[in-house]
Amino acid sequence: MTHHNHLVIMAGGIGTRFWPLSVEERPKQFLDITGCGRTMLQLTLDRFEGIVPMQNVWVVTLAQYADLVREQLPELPEQNLLLEPCGRNTAPCICYVSWKIKKRDPRANIVVTPSDHKVERPEAFREAIEDALEFAAETDAMVTLGMKATRPETGYGYIKADLSFASSRRKTIYRVDGFKEKPTLERAQEYYAQNSYFWNSGLFVWNVSTIVNAFRVYQPEMSRLFERLLSVYDTPEERTCIEDVYPQCEKISVDYAIMEKAEEIFVRPSDFGWSDLGTWNSLREQLPRDERGNACVGEVALFDTHNCIVHASGERKVVVQGLDGYVVCEKDGVLLICKLSEEQRIKLFH
Amino acid sequence: MTHHNHLVIMAGGIGTRFWPLSVEERPKQFLDITGCGRTMLQLTLDRFEGIVPMQNVWVVTLAQYADLVREQLPELPEQNLLLEPCGRNTAPCICYVSWKIKKRDPRANIVVTPSDHKVERPEAFREAIEDALEFAAETDAMVTLGMKATRPETGYGYIKADLSFASSRRKTIYRVDGFKEKPTLERAQEYYAQNSYFWNSGLFVWNVSTIVNAFRVYQPEMSRLFERLLSVYDTPEERTCIEDVYPQCEKISVDYAIMEKAEEIFVRPSDFGWSDLGTWNSLREQLPRDERGNACVGEVALFDTHNCIVHASGERKVVVQGLDGYVVCEKDGVLLICKLSEEQRIKLFH
Q1: d(C-alpha A287, C-alpha A6), whole Å
Q2: Is the omega angle on the peptide bond into residue A20 within 30 degrees of 0, that is, cis?
Q3: Which chain B residue is nearest to residue A339, measuring alpha carbons?
């Protein structure tokens, strides 16, 4: 651990794919979705223990979630909690925090992470992150963590690595050939058959100069908006200025705004049991399952039931007979029963 | 209406086939199971308005349900509420109330009814009841109401009528040839193909002398237990004496104890849309259904769902996608999902 290591946790998502478990008032990152006793946000921070000192941990979230973050991460310094007045996707979020970090620590090396993903093997995770951090400290590279594909998944974007072009400094890090959108099943099978395609995890590593310069080059307008505020960061005016500036930003992901345009993009192939837990079925696969493929959280009794995920709130007993391949979730006055194969329709149900 | 007409409502059942909607603390007769705003017990009493004066209405129930009865039937005279210290099936219940009625009104004509059945056509019901009451007043007959079978149902017992032997007094009332247990499907189809088999509704009509004499003849021990208490009925000692006597009674139904043994048994064929609502599927069939065969009570949204019954408590919103032929019921901290074809197993689930 060096005291220039910084962590940016992006916690502004309002995803309601896990409705009714996750609702806009308390989205997935603020939930103990696996029933382990820690929320996804807390688990995200836990993974960086010993890598990033607490005073270098930053959380960017929507203003409406400020109290949830304070409650779940009481050790987070208040001045490291950045509040977005409105959602503008990941590029403005990273631009803002990068300028703030630059002001505080111009030699910062930064890991940017989503706050609602799952990692099964923390030791492998730690190794990959430290590797990428050291590499980013020594170079102007922007490093993505590429997940070894374990199936022809159509729900993720892919990173194509040029495996013939390992970095001269790190044999574990390769040049990126290109980013690929979520593929069709056929295309996903092609990717999966090759060893040069990796899932795009949304985990990025770079030093602060590199990312700030990339914004200056590829998003000059956005960059100016936040650079101009350098003198007000960490002053009482910051909040008002951000409330003024933020809505002017384009709604754009860092992938589109920077990664697909920049030159010095690298990938660190990794295999630490990652999942974005983006669907009920992926949650089912990530949770401990019984011999019939069922994953249960809460007080649940199953009869003749296969391949289901049943998520019960603490107060309620759930009895299920004769279901195959369903999600059953009940929380806060709502009960959902839906085929896992139709779960993309859940957003239409509420 | 004559002032000798009496009504006995048997409300001591603890059936939990509708678990978790119905639980032992509040079984089906005390629930508004169809969502109409009246409980099954209240609906049972409603059907006799204008036939039986309120002072002649008797309710026999388990002591633990006394307050539920008082709450739901506030107009019931307190001295007409008979409390069983323990469940002993229907014969002791009818024996007890018959002796009580005999003491109060030796010319009583009595209808005995379950408290948790459904009647769709109250006018046809009323006609059948009045017919049977007049017949019972004039004869020593014990009359059962036989329901015209509308399908080869295996869940009911059957009454075989001798249609060549109509009563000389009433052309609508026939001698009973025999009682049949719940049949196999094959047997039920045979019954259904003939017009002399009727569903046994558990509705009985007789005059008080007839039933008391039948108990004397066919259940002399049981009869003695309650006859001996004639002097204590409607005195402060009644409760203690009944608590002493009741547990000594055999657990036996009036069908076994009396009907299958007695000679003068008649059946009044009737067709008033009767159902014992004994299963979730029968409840589904009795409730208003959408064009896909779904019956819903509460705030329910259905997608691609057929032939289900979804019963939601008032506070909870239920969303169901992709089910066919299931019961979904949530109440008081329990959620049940079960195939209707497997609903006989529900009693094993709680």
Answers
A1: 30
A2: yes
A3: B322
Token pair 């009944």 is at which residue? B242
DSSP calls for A57-121: EEEEEEGGGHHHHHHH-TTS-GGGEEEESS---HHHHHHHHHHHHHHH-TT-EEEEEESS-EES-
Let me know how long chain B is.
350
For residue A134, pLDDT beyond 70: yes
Mutation target to probe the A interface, by most A beta carbons within 10 A, among B319, B341, B350 is B319
Sign of the C-alpha dihedral computed for residues B91, B97, B101 and B102 taken in this order: positive
Asked if residues B238 and B103 have their Cβ atoms less than 8 Å apart, the reply is: no
Residues of B in contact with A304 (CB under 8 A): 342
Name which of B311, B337, B346 to mutate to probe chain A: the one with the most chain A Cβ atoms within 10 A of its Cβ. B337
Q: Which of A301, A304, A336 sits opposite B319 (nearest CB)?
A: A336
Of the candidates B202, B195, B326, the one whose C-alpha atom is nearest the C-alpha of residue B254 is B202
Contact predicate A267/A131, CB 8 Å: no
A33 has pLDDT over 90: no
Q: Is the ipTM of this complex over 0.90?
A: no
- Please state, in angstroms and rounded to a whole number, the distance separating the CA atoms of residues A273 and B317: 36
CA angle B207, B212, B213 (to 5 degrees): 100
**DSSP letter assigned to residue A240:** H
Put simply, the answer to whether B338 touches A321 (Cβ < 8 Å) is: yes
Summarize pLDDT for B216-243 with one digit per residue, the tens. Answer: 999 999 999 999 999 999 999 999 999 9
DSSP letters spanning A136-202: HHHSS-EEEEEEEPSS--SSS-EEEEEEEEE-SS-TT-EEEEEEEPSPPHHHHHHHHHSSSEEEEEE
pTM: 0.78
Measured in angstroms, the CA of A291 and the nearest CA of chain B are apart by 20
Beta bridge partners of residue B58, listed in sequence order: B8
Interface size A-B, in CB pairs within 8 Å, comes to 85
